[in-house]
Specification:
Elements: H1 2-43, H2 53-61, H3 67-79, E1 83-88, H4 94-103, E2 111-116, E3 125-127, H5 137-151, E4 158-163, E5 167-168, H6 170-178, E6 187-188, E7 191-192, E8 200-201, E9 207-210, H7 211-222, H8 240-250, E10 267-268, H9 272-277, H10 282-287, E11 305-306, H11 311-322
Parallel strand pairs: 1-2, 1-4, 2-3, 10-11
Antiparallel strand pairs: 4-9, 5-11, 6-9, 7-8
Helix pairs in contact: 4-11, 5-7, 5-8
Length: 350
């Protein structure tokens, strides 16, 4: 009887030891892991994650689903890219250049702001108390990026900066950006291999900076004084686009290629016709990071921007792109509804 009780006690002790080891294991490994997951999830709940984009991109391109369904899925995904557009302008151009931009491409941005020195109050104005002089443009953009950082960081994935005589095909821009991660530093545009080791992007053609890039620009560059404006012999006016590129290089935001798969440019510093016939200023051929092409090779099928476009040409481009189509090219819309009203055709009899 004594031996049996002793054996039972030994079994209970072994069970107790096993239970203690289990509790210790849970306390040592599982609880900290669970706490880390909860804390991490809470900390990143307000941060838009693009970590799955490369996988999603390959899945969609390799999908065996129907072409129509793939187009719908891709279109839906691209539309989710949140784009903030900032356009440099002046009060004298409100009735001409700004009116044309307002009537055409800019409403396709998720949010847009005109950078302007004025006392007029409008929801789409970011008014600056800085005189309209070329040498002040770099100072203006520092103020613009700082204001964006302070007020709009949770509202966008990328920022486009361009001029009021730039025409932008927003859908194509979002399509390019969809391939990348807004939580990583990046910088896109027409790449000039000049002034800076890594080069800079043309301000007129428009350049784009990721959310993370803006954070680094302001936090490391402006707030820590590592990007103070200094005079440079080769650029005495402190050109805005050069200074932005200089600061982005300093804080570790890399310029990425925006060429298409065939090596054609998507951002263009001049109007379409000048890129087609190659009638461009001489500096373009020596400054451009990539060789200048003309004719069909000048411009990507998915081109994003053209600069020095006057208001009447902005309306023209917009009409050709969005109001005109070629039968047979847009298969989703052809023949969904009658295109011509044959009942109204009148035949003359003689």
């Amino acid at each position: 009887m004594f031996k049996l009780c002793k054996r039972d006690n030994m079994v209970d002790l072994k069970r107790l030891a096993v239970n203690i080891r289990t509790v210790v294991f849970i306390g040592t490994f599982l609880i900290p892991a669970l706490l880390y997951f909860v804390i991490s999830n809470h900390a990143t709940s307000n941060v838009r994650s693009y970590q799955t984009i490369p996988k999603w991109t390959s899945e969609l391109y390799e999908s065996t689903d129907s072409a129509a369904n793939n187009r719908k899925r891709l279109s839906h995904a691209v539309q989710k890219v949140r784009l903030l557009c900032v356009i440099m302008t002046m009060e004298k151009d409100l009735a001409t250049k700004v009116a044309a931009v307002n009537d055409t491409w800019v409403p396709r941005c998720d949010k847009y702001l005109y950078i302007i020195t004025t006392k007029e109050k409008r929801n789409d104005f970011m008014s600056l108390d800085i005189p309209d002089k070329r040498q002040n443009l770099a100072l203006k953009m520092r103020k613009v990026f700082t204001t964006i950082y302070e007020q709009y960081m949770d509202q966008f994935d990328y920022v486009l900066k361009c001029d009021d005589d730039t025409y932008v095909i927003v859908e194509n821009l979002k399509f390019l950006l969809w391939h990348y991660d807004a939580n990583k530093p990046s910088y896109f545009g027409f790449h000039f291999n000049k002034f800076i080791d890594s080069g800079y992007m043309s301000g007129g053609a428009g350049y784009v900076i990721s959310n993370k890039g803006i954070r680094l620009l302001v936090e490391r560059g402006y707030q820590h004084g590592v990007c103070d404006l200094e005079k440079h012999e080769d650029d005495p006016d402190n050109s805005e686009d050069v200074e932005t590129g200089r600061c982005l290089q300093t804080v570790g935001v890399p310029p990425l290629s925006s060429l298409d798969a065939d090596g054609r440019e998507t951002f263009h510093p001049y109007p379409l016709e000048r890129h087609l016939d190659g009638h461009l200023p001489g500096f373009m051929f020596s400054w451009a990071k990539h060789s200048i092409r003309k004719g069909d090779g000048c411009c990507s099928k998915y081109s994003i921007s053209f600069h020095y476009v006057p208001p009447h040409a902005i309306y023209y481009l917009h009409h050709v792109l969005y109001k005109t189509t070629v039968f047979g090219l847009n298969h989703d819309e052809d023949l969904i509804r009658p295109v011509f009203n044959s009942e109204n055709v009148v035949f003359e009899t003689r």
